Structures are given as C-alpha cells and as structure tokens.
C-alpha cells in the first residue's frame, strides 16, 4: 500500500538561523511522510482533519484539539488517509528543554491556535520582529504547560482485543455490547473488560466513543449533516450523538464545524 501513497516533502530546518520555523500546508488524502528526524523539536498539528503520525514505535491519531510533539532527533513519519490542513512549528534544541522528552500529544490551547492562525494568515515562517518573536516564545511557554496525552486512540496488544477493535474500525456504528464482542472472541465479558483497561488504559465504551468522535470530525469536514453522521455512527437520535460529541470536544458539532472547519 505504501507504494501507492504520494510522498510528502520533508522540511529541512538544519542550518536555519532560528530559533523557530513555521510551516503551513494542505495535504491530500493518501499521502506519506517517510520516517525521518530533525535536530530541532517539531510540533505537528492538523487545523482541519485528523493527524496520523508514528514515532518511537508509537502511533498517534490526534483530532484538532491536540498536536503531536516530536522531540529533537526522534525518528517519526506520518500516513494520511484523509486530507488535512497542516501546521507545524520547528523549535531550536536550546528551547526544547522544558518540553516533553518523549513523543506525545499535547492539547492545543486557544492561545496557540490563535497565534498559529495569525502567523499563517501573515505567512510568518521565521519570526523576525520583536513582536512575532515574543508570540513564538509564548507558544513555547504554552506547550510547556499543555496537557500531555500518550495516545488518543491506543492500539491493542493481544490478538483477541485487536480483532474486536479492527471490527469497530471497519464499522464504528456497530453498537453491540461488550458481552457480544467477548462471545465472538471466546472470552468472558469480565476478561475482555480487564484487557481493555490493561492494554488501552480505558474502558471498551470509552475507546468506541473516541473512535466515533474521530470519525465524526472527518464527516463534519466533508459537510455532512449532524443527523446523517449520528445515524452512520450508530446513534438512534441526533441528540445522543451531540451529547457524546460535546463530552469529547467541549462544544457542539456545529460549533466545532464553525471553529475548526471554517464551514
């Protein structure tokens, strides 16, 4: 499959005067950035769509409330199955000491998103003026105190649980209870529930909700109605879907669409 993916250009920041470099781009679906590293720290953010990245043997799938942080000299890459509006910040090594030393996801504060939007609108790639440099340093301060999440949608280690999660990935609207899934993989419901907590760090219901939320983001990007998305994801009413979405995003689907999708 990788041979049929279009390759993304790798940004070269070595030799930049620094201490910051900003990149703005739009990537089409079915594109790939091969594994690579930089001596600078690197924040990857999808302003629209969901970011799929890999680093240090971990896979990150992050919605627009989060960005993927890659510390200096860490090998990373990404595979994009859907189109995204991409934003990234490269940070010189000397400024990365207060930031996480392992690849992870960081919650994007309104301040970070606002500065990124302002810089993108003005095409600021290497901040030069005192005012822009101050804003860039504020972003680093915000990243240093941002909520860290190791994985938004963790993967299973055991074959039985992986079978269940793969089936849900193929059909997020499948609303069978945990007991039926356990029966399918020849386990008791209690054993499968324990595996979810041990391998995923969350319950089966929470994982399925996160999967549905991520699929909802892509559907909102495509302009589909809230009712259509709700039914496709297995909700009997739009209000039940809206309640789930609000728990995950802190906002309604239509408010989210206006803020993140520009629709």
From TrEMBL:
Pfam families the UniProt entry points to: AraC_binding (PF02311), HTH_18 (PF12833)
Entry keywords, A to Z: Activator, DNA-binding, Repressor, Transcription, Transcription regulation
Ligase recorded as keyword: no
HTH araC/xylS-type domain ranges (all copies): 162-259
Keyword Phosphoprotein on entry: no
Record-level Gene Ontology MF annotations: DNA-binding transcription factor activity; sequence-specific DNA binding
SUPFAM superfamilies (UniProt xref): Homeodomain-like, RmlC-like cupins
Protein name as annotated: HTH-type transcriptional regulator NimR
Organism (species): Variovorax paradoxus
Gene: nimR_1
């Amino acid at each position: 499959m990788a041979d049929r993916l279009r390759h993304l250009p790798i940004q070269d920041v070595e030799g930049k005067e620094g201490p910051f470099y900003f990149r703005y781009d739009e990537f089409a679906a079915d594109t790939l950035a091969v594994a690579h590293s930089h001596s600078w720290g690197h924040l990857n953010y999808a302003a629209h769509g969901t970011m799929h990245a890999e680093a240090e043997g971990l896979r990150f799938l992050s919605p627009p409330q989060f960005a993927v942080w890659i510390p200096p000299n860490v090998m990373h890459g990404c595979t994009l199955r859907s189109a995204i509006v991409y934003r990234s910040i490269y940070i010189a090594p000397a400024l990365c000491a207060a930031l996480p030393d392992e690849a992870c996801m960081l919650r994007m504060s309104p301040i970070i998103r606002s500065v990124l939007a302002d810089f993108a609108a003005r095409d600021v790639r290497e901040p030069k003026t005192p005012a822009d440099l101050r804003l860039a340093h504020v972003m680093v301060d915000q990243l240093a105190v941002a909520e860290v999440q190791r994985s938004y949608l963790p993967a299973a280690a055991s074959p039985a649980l992986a079978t269940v999660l793969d089936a849900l990935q193929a059909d997020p609207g499948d609303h069978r209870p945990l007991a039926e899934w356990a029966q399918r993989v020849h386990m008791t419901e209690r054993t499968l529930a324990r595996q979810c907590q041990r391998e995923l760090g969350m319950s089966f219901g929470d994982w399925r909700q996160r999967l549905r939320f991520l699929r909802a983001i892509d559907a909102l990007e495509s302009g589909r109605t809230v009712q259509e998305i709700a039914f496709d994801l297995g909700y009997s009413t739009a209000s039940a879907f809206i309640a789930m979405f609000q728990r995950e995003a802190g906002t309604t689907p239509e408010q989210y669409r206006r803020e993140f999708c520009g629709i």
